[in-house]
Amino acid sequence: MTKARLLRLSVVLVSIFMILLIIVYWDNVGTAHFYLHTSFSRPHSSGAIPGITGGEDWEALPDVDEFLAKLLSSSLKQNSSISRKAEQLLVQGSSKPVVSNLEENVRGYDWSTHNARNSLDQEKLQIERQRTLREFCANSSFTFPTKERSFDDIPNYELNHLIVDDRHGIIYCYVPKVACTNWKRVMIVLSESLLDQGVPYRNPLDIPREHVHNTSTHLTFNKFWRRYGKFSRHLMKIKLKKYTKFLFVRDPFVRLISAFRSKFELENEEFYRRFAIPMLKLYSNHTNLPTSVSEAFGAGLKVSFSDFIQYLLDPRTEKMAPFNEHWRQVYRLCHPCQIDYDFIGKLETLDEDAAYLLQLLKVDRLLRFPPSYRNRTASSWEDDWFAKIPLAWRQQLYKLYEADFVLFGYPKPENLLKD
After folding, report:
1. Backbone torsions φ then ψ of 46, nearest 5 degrees
2. TM spans, by residue (predicted)?
C-alpha cells in the first residue's frame, strides 16, 4: 500500500516538474520576440472573487499560485539586473527626443517648459481620482452596462487594450485620442519589443507611427489565451496584482471632437470606406458616392459633425458592430470597475501626470515622455462644436457617455444639456 502511494506521489511530482520545465522553456524561448519572462498559474475556480481590487485576499491563493507569484516577482528582478547595461545606453540617447518622423514634424510639438513638480500636488490628485472611481464603482445606485460583471466575465477580445511590459512590471490600458500613440511608444522602448537594425529603440519619437499601432508590436492580455491556454486568466490576475496599472483619460465630449477631426476631417481611406460612406448615405441622403476619400473630398463630400452624432445615437450602429475604439467609451475599453488602476492620468494635465508617472515607475532616467501637440483639441471648443446639435441629441449623447464623465470626475456639461 505504501509503495503504491509513493508511486502515485512520484508521478505527481514528476508531472509538476515537467510542467515547470515547459513553462520555463516557453517563457524563455516561445516568447523571445517580446523579451518576456512570465509564469503560469492554475485555472481559476468558478467561485473566483469578482473583480481585481486592492483589497482582494491574495493570501488565500493556493500554494502553487503563491509560488508562481514569487517566481514572477523574482523574474522581474532578474530582468532588471540583466537589462541594466541596456538601460544605461537608453539614458545616453533620451535627454531630448529628436523629431524624425515627417508626420510628427507636420503636427508640431509644444516644447515649452513645464514645472511638473510644483504645478500640482500629484499624490493628492491621484488619491482623489482613485477615490472617485472606486466610490462610483461601489455605488449601487449608479449603473451602466457591464458594471456588475467580474473580471472573469470580460470576454477575451475585450482585453486587447491592456498592454503588458514584463521587463518593468507595467500594464497600460490605452485609450485612443488620449495621447495613446506616445504612450505606446514609451511601452515599446521599455519592453524592448521592437528593434531598429537589431537594436531596441531608445527614443520614443524615433518609432514610426505605423509600427506603433501594429498589434503584433505589443503583448496584450487578449494574446494570453493563445500562449497560455487555460492558465491565461489566472496569469492575468497575478500580473494585475503585482504590476503597476495605469491609463489616461480625457473629457468624453472633447475626445469625440478629436476623433471626428482626425478620422473625418483628414483624408483617411479606411475610415472613409468603413464609416463615412454609410454615414453619408444614411444621414445626408447621398448616393453614388466616390470610392476613394480623395475623390470625395475633391467633390466636397465630407461627413458632418451632425452626421457623426447621429451615427453614435443610432441604435442600429451597436447592433451591427461595437463602437470603433476611437469613440468607444473608456469603461468598455479599460474596465475600471474590474481592474484596480494604480494611476489615472488625464490629458488635461498630461505633462504633469506623465512626468510624475515615469518617476513612480522608476523609469524617468531612461526616457522622457514626448511633448504635447500644439494643436490639441481644447475643451473650450465644445460650445462651438455642439451649437448646431439639437438639445435632445446632446442629452442622449451625454447618457451614452455618462459613465466616463462620472467615473473619471469630469463635470456634467450643463451648458450643453439645457436650453
Report:
1. -65, -20
2. 7-26
Total domains in the fold of the chain? 1
Question: What contacts 214, CB < 8 A, 6 or more positions away?
Answer: none
347's CB contacts (< 8 A; 6+ apart) are 178, 179, 248, 249, 250, 376
Instruction: Enter the pTM of the model.
Output: 0.76
Assigned domain for 39 exists:
no
Tens digits of per-residue pLDDT, 142-198?
Answer: 999 999 999 999 999 999 999 999 999 999 999 999 999 999 999 999 999 999 999
Taking the alpha carbons of 256, 399, 317, 298 in that order, is the dihedral positive or negative? negative
Angle CA 304–307–310, to nearest 5: 150
Answer yes or no: is 264 within a domain: no
- Please give the residue range of the domain that contains residue 135: 116-250+329-378
Asked if residue 333 belongs to a domain, the reply is yes
